[in-house]
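Section 5.1 Outputs to date
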Amino acid sequence: METTHRVYVEDSRDLSNLDDDSVELVVTSPPYPMIEMWDDLFTDLDPAIGDALESGDDRAAFDAMHAQLEAVWDELERVLVDGGLACINVGDATRSIGGRFRVYPNHARILESFEARGFDPLPDVLWRKPTNSAAKFMGSGTLPPNAYVTLEHEYVLVFRNGGEKREFEPRADRRYEAAYFWEERNRWFSDVWTDVRGELQDLEFDGEGSDLRERSAAYPLEIPYRLICMYSTYGDTVLDPFWGTGTTSRAAICAGRNSVGYELEDAFLEVFDDRVDAVPELSRSIGRSRLDRHRSFVENRRDDGKSLGYEAVHYETPVVTKMERSIRLREATAIDERSDGYRVEHRPLSISLESPTG
C-alpha cells in the first residue's frame, strides 16, 4: 500500500490546489483568537486587528480574527466530501483588555460558523490538558469573590459536512481492516480525554527563524492519530489547513492514510524533514503498542471471567466483536521525498500477537 503526503506553503484561505470533494477528513488546530502569541499573525492577515487591540476594542478584534478563520472554513466546505468529518482542536482565551478581564469563547464561535455553512455538529471531546503550574487560580487568590476558574481544557469539535453519513461498498476491506479494538473504542469515544499528555516542542531553527519556536504550539501526536483512526479509513485523505510542524501528517503516515497540509511558514518544513525519517519506526512502535495493550486487555478480561466471542483473522488473538475480526494494522517501511511531496510505502505490521493463555 502506498500513501502520498503533500504540503503547500500557501495561505489556507485559498485551497485552490485541492479539487472539490477531494478529502475525507480534516484534522487541525488553528491559531486561537485572542491568545496573545497569535496577535501578530492575525494582524498580518488583517491590520485592522492590530488597530482594534491597540484601541481596546476587544469585540472588534475577536470578530475580525474569527473572520480570518471563517475564510478557511468556507474552503473546507468545498473540498470535504459529503459526509466527511472535520475535527477542530481549539481552546478558549482569557485576557484583560482595557482593564476588563473576560473569557473569549472560541469554541462557541466556531460552532456557530460551521453550522452556518451547513455542517452538522457531532458530540465533541473535552481534552483535559495537564498543567505544570503550581498556581491553580487567577485573580485574587483565595479571597472571594474575584478569583477566576483556570482553563485547563481544550475542545475537539467534530462536524459532519452535510446531513448524510458516508457510504461504503458492502464489506469494504479498507474500512474493516481499519477497525479499532473494542476497548480502544470505549476509551477514544469518551467525551473527556484525560490520558493525552501535552507535548513540549523542542524545535531547532537557524537564524531569523528562531522565533518560530514560540509559534509552534503543536498538539500531541496522540490527538490527530486517534481522530484519524476514529473518523477515516485506509485510502482516505486527511487535510490540515494549519499544518505547523506536520504533526497531523506524521499521524496520517502512522495510520496509513494520505495527507495534505497548508502552512504559511516554510521554516516549519525543515522540522518535518528532520523528523520524517523516524516515522517508520514510530509507526511500528505505535502499532505494536496497540497490540500489546490489547493483549493486556484480553488477559484482564479473562481474569475477570468474561468471554471474547471472536478470533482476529490477521492476529492470533481473540476480540470482543465481529467487526474487529479483520483489523490489520499498517507500518511505514520506506519514505521517498519527491518534488510534489512524499510517497510512503506501507505493509502489514511486522509482528503477530500471540494468543494469551489462561
